[in-house]
Amino acid sequence: MNNTIKVLRIKDLINKIGIGRSTIYDWLNPQSPRFNATFPRPMKIGLSAIGWLEHEVDAWITAQATLRS
Fold first, then answer.
1. In this prediction, what percent of the chain has a pLDDT beyond 90?
2. Number of Cβ atoms within 10 Å of the Cβ of 52
3. Of 7, 43, 49, 67, which is most buried, counting CB atoms within 10 Å of its CB?
4. Alpha-carbon distances, residue 41 vs 36, 65, 66 (angstroms)
């Protein structure tokens, strides 16, 4: 079993979910009409760098798939 924790930078996240950078940041912004409270929050990984935990992104993708009709 692989217990490695992987942090996705924005380019990796874009490639993984197929959504553009501006949409991702809109989903994170509570002031945006496209805000998505279910989307995983990034974490700070440096002075000005952020990343997303891959297992949280994977869980979000799985949850979105279960919402399909």
1. 90
2. 24
3. 7
4. 10, 19, 20
